[in-house]
Amino acid sequence: MTFEIPAQRRYAESHEWILRRDDVVRVGITDFAQDELGDIVFVELPAAGETLEEGTEFGVVESIKAISDVYAPVSGPIAAVNEAILDRPELVNEDPYGEGWMIELETDDSLDHLLDPDQYEEQIQ
Amino acid sequence: MAGHQQAVWNDSESDGYEPLLAEKDRTTVDIEYDGLPEDLTRDSISLPALSEPEAARHYTRLSQMNYGIDSGPYPLGSCTMKYNPKFTEDIATRASAAVHPDRLEGSVQGTLQLYAELQDYLGRIGGMDAVTLQPPAGAAGEFTGILVAAAYHDRNGEGDERTEVIVPASAHGTNFATAAMAGYDVVELPATDDGRVDLEALESAVGSETAALMLTNPNTLGLFERDIAEIADIVHDAGGLLYYDGANLNALLGRARPGDMGFDIMHYNVHKTFATPHGGGGPGAGPIGVTEELAPFLPSPQVRQGSDGYELFEPSESIGKVHGAMGNWLVLLKTHAYIRRLGDEGLEDASAKAVLNANYLASQIDLEVPFGPFHHEFVASAGEIDAADFAKRMLDFGVHPPTTKWPEIVPEALMTEPTEVESKRSLDRLAAAFDAVDKDADALESAPERTSARYIDQTSAARSPRLSWHALSGEE
Amino acid sequence: MSQHETTLSTATSRSGTPFAPHSEADVEAMLQAVGADSVEDLFDVPESVRFDGSFGIDAASERDVRRQLTETLERNDSVTEFLGRGHYDHYVPSLVDHLADRSEFLTSYTQYQPEITQGFLQTLFEYQSLLVELTGLGVANCSMYDAATALGEAATLSQRIRAVTGDRVLVPDTLLDERRAVLENYVSGADLVVAEYQTDGGVVDPDEIAAAVDDDVAFVYVENPTTSGRIQPALEEIGTHLADSEVLFCLGSDPVALSLLQTPASVGADVVVGDASTLGLGSAYGMGLGLFACREEYLRQVPGRLVGASEDDRGQRAYTLTLQTREQHIRRERATSNICTNQAWVALRAAIHATLLGPDGLVDLAKSCHRLPQRLAARIDAIDGIEAPADEYPTLREFRATVEPPASEFVSALYEEGFAVHAVDEETVQICVTDANEREIDAFVAAIAEVLD
């Protein structure tokens, strides 16, 4: 089975993807992660305005038989939360890199410490 | 391979099977009562109003849409589903058993005598010095045991320091949840390749923060922890206590006792070891046994024989209470009756036959069964087949499937515990069911076909929870 | 281990368990199949921890065990109980026993394979629905152990709700010692502390609540009726006070009381706990059925099992355990509770009993629980030497009466006449009357008159 790993993004070992959009970064979970979990039935996200520290858990993704924490790949205040996935958690399965995004963080920090697509692909093999 | 067909009651007026009570009738009664001020009563109540014959039919049909150990084999690993002798029910429904919990001790000598006797039996069976019957289930027993451990460390002035409970990675989920509920940090202990406790990992996990190690023996794979004496030394040398999860005690009756192995605290699962009915999820009972040193911390009240008969007393440093009364008394009464019926030789024989059955069944199925020889259970691998799908197909053969996907040390695990109550013929049929499922992968897709309901969509149930008939009819 | 080998060689005789069906030939064939000489060889127990002793428990025939245990139980004094205090008896119709004892229900496990356990799942779904109707709250679980443990679970729920920031659990000064003791243990690991607020014999003054509640309070518990039977006169005002705060408002009650009294939802309660075995079981030495219902918004934080409706692959409605990621077998140390086995079969009994009563029967039963103590109190009050009721608050099922001190003497004398009541303090007793003992009222009143004569 092959999983989508878009270029132009960075990845965390804990299976989050990170995409810079001007002064914010958008965070979600990877295609591999959603597939491992199976049908996602519930997503818990923090409120906008909270400030996250790199490496701390900020949300939970649940399938029927498994739960997974989602970790902040960088530090910064939460600029936006994708409320759509709270009502329709299946979006995370259907479009993990698009409509299934989770939060946006305000940060200028470098993303260089995170995995590039090749490194992430190696990790999940 | 022969199968079965579970009852299907289908009512053309409903979109399901046997209609809900509320779909048969829902009558709204306005509350009119001049005995109380109007603002202290509710306005109305809306519930089904059925005649007795209609109610009898409803629940009889529902019972036919349910599978129990009296229906057929139920080899759920770790859950220990065995035949529940019916005479114990007759004792538990006697009016003289249904006394009020506030009755004074002098007026319920019979009840207290049975409590005292059962405390004594359990102490002897587990090799423990004192036993409380108060915890109403195994998980409540764990909670009680960890509270006892906490009280012991507090008394020794080490309560603030000992903040960790060590739990093997393959332990029951309750162990982790219990430790957390009692306020402890959980330290997960990795296993060796054969699923046993890794002594080196244990050595490095224990320390001055260790309050207790929770362990079941034989473990989840049905393997005895042969290093148990050394494990006990390691934990005790670090100042911690050793807790025995009694889930698998039914494998050892008369061969080994937790108290002799060095355990300080244990709980008994009376359903698993002493054949009280599981009742579709409870009630159970989770008595705990402790060493003499820990007896002063047990919940209150305890029962003992005094000079004027049986009496209640509060242990000197009691943790207080874990149940509003004396636990699940009727379940305890059935436990007492079962132990008396079997006696020493019957209990020993129950373990012998449980172990024989597990090993025999493991030898008769074609699936890969790593490890062994086993005690009361084994874990087979469904191999290329998803264990959950494997289980659904087994339902079509008139047997309940094993526990699936746990422990994770075996891929696509089928954790199987036939118990002592299956005959050789029954085990042969069970083995044939395993093999029939294994050899007909095409049938997995549509399974189960012979159960009251077909494959149930759990995802939509969790995405849009509908937990009452109010939610189904969109009333909320 | 010759002792065990003897057991096996006589496996078909009466010395083994009567509940294993193996013939001697079966045992031989099975040992051969696994390649062992004896069953003892299969026990992988090191010599150092082998148990070679005996338990000293004699086996007995079914008939003898029944006789012995029955005889022992008969050592309980045969008296008529006018006891309540949180544990209540109502007449349980025969059909409840007959249906609940159907072995497809009684001998089944938790419904981890829903396709083959639809019957029990539907019953639990209907039980949840009954509680939703009675409480007016959106969610009810499949049960906790009893009223005391349900209260403990409700208190710790407050810590999992983000909006609640306090750490104090407020309970009435009349809370039963046993419930308080269980609550203390449940909150011990959760950084919560239990504190009391003042009541007038259990009756809660809303101003007292308003004064007691500050930012440090997480949870307020009120009972209606109280365990002395009193019906709260001012729940709505209490609910209004608490609605402005983030405090969790928990009400203690039971299904019979809830059939007549104000619904918890209508007075702003967030959680309801109590003993639901007032239906279906009665006071089996305090074995209970923990009622737990709460607002739908706390759904993900609910302890214990939940049954939900879904569909099977033919599109027919079916039921399944749901939201299991809250539970210990998946979430482990972060589970909402460690509860696994609950009181499912007692819930089944309560559901059947409620079905047999129907809405009219439930309401009539509750009304009788209000009328009976009034009538009995009036009859007792006519006797010299006892005043009943001790105060004028309306009550359900029970009431208090004042006697010449010491009350314990009165209680003992009445016991000698064959009636059990509670001694509360030096001059107060508590008497409980329901449909279960109402036919003994005449004899009870006569006995009181006799004792006080």
Task: Provide a descriptive summary of the structure in words.
The complex is a heterotrimer of chains A (125), B (476) and C (453). With 125 residues, chain A is an alpha+beta fold. Chain A has one domain: Beta Barrel (OB fold (Dihydrolipoamide Acetyltransferase, E2P)), CATH 2.40.50.100. Chain A contains four helices and nine strands; from the N terminus they run βββαβββββααβα. In chain A, a hairpin with a 2-residue loop joins strand 2 (16-21) and strand 3 (24-29). Chain A is globular. Chain B is of the alpha/beta class and 476 residues long. Chain B has a domain at 87-341: 3-Layer(aba) Sandwich (Aspartate Aminotransferase, domain 2), CATH 3.40.640.10. Chain B is 34% helix and 13% strand. Chain B is built from 15 helices and 14 strands. Chain B has helices at 21-24, 52-64, 87-92, 109-126, 138-155, 173-181, 199-205, 228-237, 258-261, 270-274, 329-364, 387-394, 424-438, 458-463, 469-472, and strands at residues 27-30, 44-47, 130-132, 164-168, 185-189, 210-215, 241-246, 265-268, 288-290, 302-306, 309-313, 378-381, 403-404, 413-416. In chain B, the strands form four sheets. In chain B, strands 3-9-8-7-6-4-5 form a seven-stranded mixed β-sheet, sandwiched between helices. A three-stranded antiparallel β-sheet of chain B has the order 12-14-13. In chain B, strands 1-2 form a two-stranded antiparallel ribbon. Chain B is globular. Chain C folds into three domains: 1-70, no CATH class; 80-90 and 359-452, Aspartate Aminotransferase, domain 1 (Alpha-Beta Complex), CATH 3.90.1150.10; 94-351, 3-Layer(aba) Sandwich (Aspartate Aminotransferase, domain 2). In chain C, 37% of the residues lie in helices and 15% in strands. Chain C has helices spanning 2-9, 24-34, 62-73, 94-100, 103-106, 118-135, 147-160, 177-187, 206-212, 235-243, 255-258, 328-331, 344-381, 407-416, 441-452; strands at 80-81, 139-140, 168-172, 193-197, 217-223, 248-253, 271-275, 290-294, 307-311, 317-321, 386-387, 398-403, 419-420, 422-425, 428-432. In chain C, the strands form four sheets. Chain C has a seven-stranded mixed β-sheet with strand order 2-8-7-6-5-3-4, sandwiched between helices. In chain C, strands 11-12-15-14 form a four-stranded antiparallel β-sheet. In chain C, strand 5, helix 10 (235-243) and strand 6 (248-253) form a beta-alpha-beta unit. The chains are: A alpha+beta (125), B alpha/beta (476), C alpha/beta (453).
